[in-house]
Amino acid sequence: MLWQVIPYFDDIGWFYSAARNALLLGKFPLLGITSSIVWLHQGPLWTYMVIPAFWLSNFHPLSPVVFIIFINLFLFPNFYYLISKLFNKRTALLSIFLFALIPWWRTHSITPYHTSPIPLFEVIFLLSLIKHRDFLAGLFLGLLYQLHLLTFIFWPLLLLRLNKKSIFGFILGILPFIISGPTQTLGIFIWIIKHLFEGFGGTGLASDAYRVVLFIPGLIFFGFFVKIVLDHVDSHNINQK
Which among 12, 216, 7 has a CA at the least distance from the CA of 114? Predict the structure, then answer.
């Protein structure tokens, strides 16, 4: 049975309930599930993504799984294109090979949870920066913040393409937070400042959600070293001739 290989935990049920209530009761949430910082929430984006899956399948519990598998199919060609643009095609092929071999990612990519779209959205955001798609860069950076608050670490990258289009896209991407108020929008920075003085002990920095946020940057870092090694091998072979 497919259910036997798909992770399920209570937080997934929270999103299922929120999406069901939106369809049956018209209660479209302005915020998502509570984050590890208990007075802050993730955004409602994943709930909104589950809603059409439920609507099209008449609330079949596997429909969000099929949906996340489908959108993650777009991750591999876009990640290959990103690495080839940053480095070269050989590095991109090796990075994709490593990507496909990681068991943790294979499990995460079929989990109907708010962190599962993060790698794809990160890749789209970075490609948008590279290709000067300023509105899309800002939009996907904002959508990433809805998926997980930790993605604020990517905000300085928007300075590379800071203009009216990118700012408008970013505001649109975090609009539910803006409507909710400044505490939800910027509360993560209040939390950071507070813990700079008190320490970060017991804050759960090694959680699975944190690992998925850093997954694509980690693979890009790996690709950088792969390129160095390949360039060194090429240089050595040329000198041997």
Answer: 12
